[in-house]
Amino acid sequence: MKPFAIALAALALTTATAASAGEIADKAAEAEKALQSNDAVGALTKFRDAEEALWKAMPLAVLNVKQISSASGFGVYTERPDHIYKPGEEIVLYMEPVGYGYGSDGLGNNQIALYVDLTVLTQSGEKLGSFEKLGRVQLASRSHNREMFFKLNVSVDGLPAGKYRADFLMHDENSQKTAPFTTDFEIAQ
Q: Signal sequence: where (predicted)?
């Protein structure tokens, strides 16, 4: 009886995964049909339905991690020419999280809430220290915003001259999703 229950559970898991993937493709096909019928609004609505299904199914990820000198909006940033910093200079990161969940702010808005943890390592991999909830971003919106950036200022004051690696872990407060990402930096003499 036990092997049958395990096989049944495996079949249910396989079916659920296939249904999820099918839902995305079905909604995208509906968008294509609407577009072929010159129904631009309907096509966009169906495409957004497909995007919503994909967004819910995908893991949290962090795209376009850049060391920057400034950022004023999504995709609007000035990248640093190098990753070399003077002692005491802040590292400023720009990143674009995707796949996050939505909560509620209690006022009828969807709320996005993310934070990051940091571990600093030497070039050889020796762990120098970890910091939890180093930075946090929170956004309330009537829409399920997909274009969102996270700007993070990191102070590594006190590190001696040398090359380092910063390992981050982003957490989604509206789900159990996490996403690791890494960047290298150097403290000049």
A: 1-21
Sole residue written with tokens 């700007």: 151
- Residues 6 or more apart whose CB falls under 8 angstroms from that of 175 comprise 60, 100, 101
What is the distance between the alpha carbons of residues 55 and 172, in angstroms, rounded to a whole number? Answer: 13
Cβ neighbourhood burial of 1 (10 Å; 0-12, 13-18, 19+): exposed
- Alpha carbons 47 and 33: distance in angstroms, whole number: 11
CA distance 108 to 101: 16
Q: Do the Cβ atoms of 55 and 97 come closer than 8 Å?
A: no
Structure tokens at 128: 């120098």
Q: What is the pLDDT of residues 95-109, one digit of tens each?
A: 999 999 999 999 999
Grade residue 7 by pLDDT with cuts at 50, 70 and 90.
very low
Contact 188, 87 (CB under 8 A): yes
